[in-house]
Amino acid sequence: MASALSDSRVSAEHIPVKLVIAGPFGVGKTTIVSALSEIKPLNTEEVLTQAGTLVDDLTGVSDKTTTTTAIDFGRLTLPGAVLYLFGAPGQTRFQVLWDELVRGALGVLVLADTRRIDESFAVLDLVENAGIRYAVAVNHFPDSPDYPLESVRKALDLDPRTPLMVCDARDPASARASLIALVEHVRELVLS
Ligand SMILES: Nc1nc2c(ncn2[C@@H]2O[C@H](COP(=O)(O)OP(=O)(O)OP(=O)(O)O)[C@@H](O)[C@H]2O)c(=O)[nH]1
Ligand SMILES: [Mg+2]
Questions:
Q1: For residues 166 and 180, what is the distance between their CA atoms, to the nearest angstrom?
Q2: Ligand 1, atom 29: nearest CA belongs to which residue?
Q3: pLDDT: is 1 or 164 the higher one?
Q4: In terms of pLDDT, which residue wins out, 60 or 190?
Q5: Which atom of ligand 1 approaches the CA of 63 most closely?
Q6: Ligand 1 atom with the shortest distance to the CA of 66
Q7: Mean pLDDT across 41-60
Q8: Which of 38, 133, 139, 142 has the least CB density, counted as fewest CB within 10 Å?
Q9: Residue 2: what pLDDT?
Q10: In the predicted model, what is the mean pLDDT of residues 9-32?
């Protein structure tokens, strides 16, 4: 992590910003941190074990072989700001890390999967209870139903001002657009 903090791309003029990427199990958090990060991301992936099948619901993500057991960490420098990206673990048994993870964070990008929309509720509850600003990005998989965003907004009971977009977590441009929508949203709220 030392190299992430001492790099010629980051200067004293860059405001350090902590952002958290959250969402249910297997929604693409590790993938989006990897797509966004300009440094080699720190991952804490462990192989999913047979014992875990009792608690890890693989519905919709049956090809998944690993899971994040602590955090993902990456960094993205924008003009004037350096974003430190913390990917949360997706499984509910790791929620004990949540309070520490969101401490000092400017906002949360919540990833959602329209194949398993109800699994986003627990994460949205955590974010809202923490009183932290957020945006929602629907990570689109090949077999994801194509619901209009207004239906997704309604299903997730989102405030009309909360940014909601579709993204491809593997695509750096798409991932970056989601993150920038979050940062812009937080900026507008802070300035209003
Ligand atoms: N087709 C497609 N596959 C994706 C996309 N994003 C992620 N994946 C795949 O979905 C699987 C799960 O992605 P991860 O990034 O590990 O998900 P995660 O949210 O970090 O998972 P946990 O940490 O276990 O909660 C991986 O096999 C990814 O390659 C996407 O946008 N499209
Ligand atoms: Mg992960």
A1: 13
A2: 31
A3: 164
A4: 190
A5: 27
A6: 24
A7: 69
A8: 142
A9: 47
A10: 92
Range of the domain at 52: 2-191
Can you tell me the distance from the alpha carbon of 24 to that of 94, in angstroms, rounded to the nearest whole number? 11
CATH code where residue 109 lies: 3.40.50.300
| Residue located nearest, by CA, to atom 3 of ligand 1 | 141
Distance 185 CA to ligand 1 centre (A): 25
Question: How many separate domains does the chain show?
Answer: 1
List, for residues 62-111, the tens digit of each pLDDT value: 677 888 777 899 999 998 999 999 999 876 666 778 888 999 999 999 99
Q: Which ligand is nearest to the CA of 95?
A: 1
For every residue of 77-146, DSSP letters joined together read EETTEEEEEEEPP-SGGGGGGHHHHHTT-SEEEEEE-GGGGGGGHHHHHHHHHTT--EEEEEE--TT---
pLDDT-above-90 percentage for the chain: 63
Pocket residues: Cβ below 6 A from ligand 1: 23, 25-31, 61, 63-64, 67-68, 89-90, 139-142, 168-170
Pairing between strand 15-22 and 107-112? parallel
Distance from the CA of 14 to the center of ligand 1, in angstroms?
Answer: 30
Please tell me the predicted confidence (pLDDT) of residue 189. Answer: 87
